[in-house]
Each structure stands twice: as structure tokens, then as C-alpha cells.
Amino acid sequence: MLLTITNRKQPASDLSFLLHKHPAKVQSVELSAGKAHIFYERADNEECTAVLLLDIDPVGLVRNDGPNGNDFALEQYVNDRPYVASSFMSAAIAKAFSSALNGRCKDKPELVDQPLSLEIKLAVLPVRGGEEFLRRLFEPLGYEVNATNHTLDDTFPKWGQSRYYTVILKNEISVQQLLSHLYVLIPVCDNDKHYWVSQHEVEKLLEKGQDWLDTHPEKEIIVRRYLKHQRSLANKALEVLISKDLEDVVPEEAELAGSEEPEKVVRIHEQRLVAARDALLSAGCKRVVDLGCGEGRLMKLLLAEKAFEYVLGMDVSYRCLEIAKDRLKLERLSEKQSNRVRLIQGSLTYRDKRIEGFDGAALVEVIEHLDRPRLAALERTVFEFAKPGMVVLTTPNAEYNVRFEDYEEGKMRHSDHRFEWTRKEFETWASGIAERYSYEVSFSPVGEVDPEVGALSQMAVFKLKAEKEESLS
Q1: Is 417 exposed, middle or buried, given 0-12, 13-18 or 19+ CB atoms closer than 10 A?
Q2: Is 170 found in the same domain as 21?
């Protein structure tokens, strides 16, 4: 199987620096069932073409099938794996071009984010779903797609067309972006993988797709195929991708706001964070978990207070956690300060022992991003299993939406909101939780209160009943 990458943006030889492979040398890397060879067809200022050639050993495929393989299965002896671009190609890309895939270039780091005029040829690529599906994968990412379908057998044309294509892709894109697309989408086209898929594959998918997968119109089928249709893993990955956790409150609520509203929206977001912090402080909480921490804005406020001895931030979004890491400057903290804070990736709809045993917890503008049927899972995760001594929870007040200039009936503040509650609906839901899980709950508006429709945001503060606190201690 063969992959060629051609750059025609001058000086075209920049491609060799990005791939970390010298044009004058043939290099090879070992794979689980063969070798990958890297060489150049051409390397000058006008054009540079790098070639990745996979030499898969058919006997090695059988040998590496392991003790759980079926020794009598014909498929392990008669298959297309040595001849087509599949998950073996993705593994080869990760190993042969690891620096480029991870966005590193020692000699010319300024090239990493620069788009090049790239042309990619894949021969031969199996596509389950045909050319239409191939285009649905690559065209939303800006690629010009040219696909040539091959017949099953030229001597027997009546047998029809195969699922194999020679594919040429063109795009103005960085090498890192290109390799991340190929790494994920090649096995998606093939709808198969040569190795066992586990939780680690979810992490790899989210890492390689962090800059593009969440906005891809075919993200669901990409996730399911990449994870070999393992429902539990696919659901975890999709939760990450569909959860837009308040990267910036201005674009979220300003969708309904007029030209004069963004400043007001910024202020209300600051007031939410301050209200949550003050509630946790007044309750004497020392160990606090920020559930759905997003970019770490609340965590930054909490860490500024010496009263909080330990702050844990959890979010489903890997990208948000990376931003939070930078915002909190974790790499620059002293050992004493770094022991006060930790970021973890996780979902609020699954029990997680890492968030148990805290004095206080915060969910600031989080619940409205979940589908209503999943709220029951969040309730159990937070109030039954994690069982913090105190929970501060805020959510938009749907009644206030009529005050936005661009208000339309039924339109929510952000496209990712699954629901928005009136004050009565919120109080009914929160009171039910308090009764089921032995909490006391109180409610307060956040921000300036409109006499008719209330405040822009609403807050509930849950406190574990005394007898429960004693039994837990």
C-alpha cells in the first residue's frame, strides 16, 4: 500500500523538514506485521514528494493474531490487508511521521502551522459506502477529492465495481492537520481495525480530532466506525464532542442579544462565578470539585482563595482542559501550589470515584448542555455517588430571554443548549433532587433582577442534611 504527499508551495522542500525525514535517505520503521519505508520521489524548491510504502507480511498477520484467533478461519490467510490502506497505514503514519503528527519541527518550528499546497495520493483505499461517503468525509475539511473506482476483476466486468479506490486529495492545509485527518479517516473509510479497540482509542481519537472533529457533519459515523461500533466507547467520545462547555459566554448568550448586550452578558458570567465562589467560601468548603470546569475560569477564582486547600477540575472536553491548563499556568506553579490543583477528563453521566469525598462541588451553566434523558444519570453521579457536602448549580433563566433584542419564541441562547428552564421548572427539578438525596436546597437570582421575568441566571445551593454528613464522617 502506498501513500504519497506532495507539496508545491515554494520552497517545496519545506515538507522534508516538517516530516523529519532526509530526502537523500531511505528510512524504515518496524510495524507489528511488517515494515514502513519512507523515501522521496522528488525534493527541490518547485516540488517535493514524500512516499510512505507499507510492506505487510501476510504470515506475520496470522502469527500476530494471538491465541484468541480462529486457526481455521480462511479470512486470516486470504484477505486484502497487505495491499490496501487501512489501520496499518494509520499506525505507519503515527510511527514514521510522529513529530509532524504531533506538531513539532525542530529545525523550522515556524512551519508547523503554515498551510502548504498539498496533494495526497492513496493507492488503494477501501471505502465502505462508496465515493459519496468518501466525499462526505473529506470535502467538509476543504479537500478537493478525485476518486477512481476499480472493478472487481477486469476479465469479468459483469462482476461490477469493487469497494477499492485510488484517491487523490488536494488542500491548502498544514502537514499536521493533513496527517491527523488521514490518521482518523483512513480506518473510518475501511470500517475496520487490525487491533483491539479500548478506552485508549477514545483518547487518541479526541486528541487527533481536537481541532476539527467536533464541527464535522459526519462526526457520529466517524466516531462509531473509528471505535469499531463499540457503543459505550462511542457514546463517551460523542459526549465530549457535543458538549460545548462555555468556552466563552459572550457568543453563547449574545446569540439572542443585541449590539448593546455583550458587555452585560460578560458581567453576568463574572457574577455567576463570583456567586459560586462566595457560596462555597461561606459554607467553609476546603476541598472543591468544579464539574464541567471548561476553560478553568472558576478554578482560577477558587485558587486565589487560601481557604480552598484543593481544587479539582473535571470536564469531558480535552480541548477545554488544555486551555484550562494554560489559563492556570500549571507548568509554572511551585510544588506546593501544584499540589492544590488537578485537572481530569471525565463525564458527569458516569460514576467516577475521583470526584467523591469533596466538601463542595460547582456546576456553573452545565446542565442545560445535556439531553434531558441524561439528567437522571447526572443526578445520580453527583448527588448519590459523589455526594459532596454542598453543591452550587447555576443555569439560564428562560423567562429572561424575552429581554434580548433578537428574541424568537422557542429559540434558546445557544445552539448547544438542550433545554432552558423557567424559574418554576428549575425549582421543581432541584427540589426533587433535594428530597431524593437528603439535601436542603435554596434558590437565588444571579445578576440584576427584572421585576417581571427575574434575573438572567438562577442558582440553587444544595446542602447535605446534618444527619447524612454525620453518617458519612
Answers
A1: buried
A2: yes
